Amino acid sequence: MALSEEKQKQIVDAAIAEFQEKGYAGASMDRISCRANVSKRTVYNHFESKDVLFSAIIQRLADRLNAALEIAYDPDRPIRPQLERLAWAEGDLLTDPDFMKLARMVMGETIRDPELAADMNSRMTKTAVFEEFMARANADGKLHAPDPQLAAEQFLGLIKSQGFYPRIFTDAPVSREEMAGIVDRSVEMIMKSYGRE
Amino acid sequence: MALSEEKQKQIVDAAIAEFQEKGYAGASMDRISCRANVSKRTVYNHFESKDVLFSAIIQRLADRLNAALEIAYDPDRPIRPQLERLAWAEGDLLTDPDFMKLARMVMGETIRDPELAADMNSRMTKTAVFEEFMARANADGKLHAPDPQLAAEQFLGLIKSQGFYPRIFTDAPVSREEMAGIVDRSVEMIMKSYGRE
DNA sequence: AAGGTAAACTATTCAGTGTAGTTTAGGCGC
DNA sequence: GCGCCTAAACTACACTGAATAGTTTACCTT
């Protein structure tokens, strides 16, 4: 139903804000329902517990990440713009304030438990896509990266060390202009190391 | 009193572990007293509230950081080993599991509030020491860094981007050997950019 | 006498439930 | 289109039970 879906969206939005501000333990279901302009019972009709609600939000973040990074290597196009596009797939997320807020929240909750954090990090860090891409370009003779996994990690590392980690503690993500520079420099570095132009 | 001091240490250690595991909101004063093998009243005799106890731990971390970084430029010694020593002052902390655990805890608590996070970051990031050092070496003619603040940030950034950020989510800090490499490469880069040998 | 212990106690917050009543949207006869 | 019905979804609110910050009291140890 349309109404139900709308209520659900209100709940999720309110929950994101509440979890973001107070953390999991500090968040209150009463406040969430209040922020969502919805009765507490409705919250529980949509999400059977606080935990389920929290997990649903995490899942939403992961889904979004996976969707954004569905990029495959195309042998018919030159390598450099493809690397740029790949970098921008990550860059788009990192320049989005909402994504960064969500990411910050998840990090705050998981950082204390290294195992959980590692799991979350692997769900959030789609090295696999980068790795696959590198391996394909390699096989196609457009790159010369003996260790595609390392190359993928370096590529992502270059982007995140400039565009993500330094901004975890800040309200403002990197601007599109800054990201353009980051993408350029990162692609340049990968091309210098592994390029075959 | 010696006994009292010992109890206090037990309390602080237990509190660190508890805050680390559960976060501020999730931590329980009952569990802290239990972990410390101390009565709850004793906890409250030493620290008048949960908040005070938490702050005391933060302060302890900040103090340790400040103490570790009390390094001044010495015009009578060559610049490179002095840069290495400065880098190692930071490196020592980053290779210490206890320090990293504390840092992770503080980050988890502050990350949600950008203002608090920025404040904490400034308390934890002693750019000032690096900056002062750079400026002195500059005035002494051993370095040529037109913007000492930038140079200091770059120096620290090089170290932290390799030795800190990638390890926030991991249980294991960088090893001393890895840190040696990080220090070498970072000093090398600074010398290449600003050196006058 | 100084500091510690143990355990009960207060007051509060909060996750989650139960219930009785209300809104909404769509279907159906007309 | 119009009134009427139904069922699902929502609301308001009181309630339970558990956890928890912080206090009090009476007693113990060195």
TrEMBL record, chains A, B:
Keywords: DNA-binding, Transcription, Transcription regulation. InterPro entries: DNA-bd_HTH_TetR-type_CS (IPR023772), Homeodomain-like_sf (IPR009057), HTH-type_TetR-like_transc_reg (IPR050109), HTH_TetR (IPR001647), Tet_transcr_reg_TetR-rel_C_sf (IPR036271), TetR_C_Proteobacteria (IPR039536). One of its GO terms (molecular function) is transcription cis-regulatory region binding. Residues 28-47 bind DNA. Residues 5-65 form the HTH tetR-type domain. It holds the Pfam family TetR_C_7. PROSITE patterns: HTH_TETR_1 (PS01081), HTH_TETR_2 (PS50977). This is TetR family transcriptional regulator. The lineage of its organism: Bacteria, Pseudomonadati, Pseudomonadota, Alphaproteobacteria, Hyphomicrobiales.
